[in-house]
Amino acid sequence: MKRVAILISGGGSNMLALVRDMAGDHPARPVLVASNDPAATGLEKAAALGIPVAAIDHRAFGRDREAFEAALAEKIDAASPDILCLAGFMRILTPGFIRRYEGRMLNIHPSLLPKYPGLHTHARALAAGDTEAGCAVHEVTAELDAGPILGQARLPVLPGDTEAALAARVLTLEHRLYPKVLRRFATGDRTPVLLD
Ligand code: GAR
Q1: Distance of alpha carbon 131 from alpha carbon 53, whole angstroms
Q2: Among 38, 153, 162, 179, which is disulfide-ready with 195 (CB 3.0 to 4.6 Å)?
Q3: Is the Cβ atom of 109 under 6 angstroms away from ligand 1?
Q4: Residue identifier of the C-alpha nearest atom 17 of ligand 1
Q5: Residue 12 Cβ < 6 Å to ligand 1
Q6: Residue 174, class by beta-carbon neighbours within 10 Å (0-12 exposed, 13-18 middle, 19+ buried)?
Q7: Phi, psi of 54 (to 5 degrees)
């Protein structure tokens, strides 16, 4: 059985989708949900499901990203995860942290990568007049949002779509995609999951 730690910064809806899927014949189980924000509401949701939680407030470390990450890594390593899932984790990670978990760290991103790495993905897709949007799960490597794609799901942009409407529809799609990718990844299979 693979052990999975999940990093969040907010509501944790992707984290919940992963956790709910990790039951029965699933090859993995959640061992930790950690956040850089002690107020992240996803922490309570995970705790209510009996999953160990941890909060390392990045603000306590000022500009010292490495000290923040060292404290976070200590919590993560204490849970001995085989796989680390970033699920709405909104801190940029240093190369040192990425190297430590390279090959076993996944991220979900709300765009059809390689389009729109970084923030404000839906606004950028709308401004560009894209007819399709979606989400991607990728392996985390040193370059932001650019690691090998492990899964992708797309949907049409509708006439009159707003950033909020598009974000909500993509989020629902994320909840379908990420669990499928984690299931496959946990068996050692890196073939991309493609959902339409
Ligand atoms: C999701 O849309 C996720 O793709 C995005 O944040 C949201 C988190 O929602 N992640 C990023 O933008 C990463 N750069 P959640 O907390 O409900 O899962």
Answers
A1: 39
A2: 153
A3: yes
A4: 13
A5: yes
A6: buried
A7: -145, 145
> 133: Cβ below 6 Å to ligand 1?
no
In this prediction the pTM is: 0.98
Identify whether the C-beta of residue 34 lies closer than 8 Å to the C-beta of residue 56.
yes
For residue 164, pLDDT over 80 is answered with: yes
- In 3D, which of 143, 153, 149, 155 has the Cα closest to residue 185? 149
Q: Which domains does the chain have, with CATH numbers?
A: 1-101 (3.40.50.170), 107-196 (3.40.50.170)
pLDDT tens, 100-155? 999 999 999 999 999 999 999 999 999 999 999 999 999 999 998 999 999 999 99
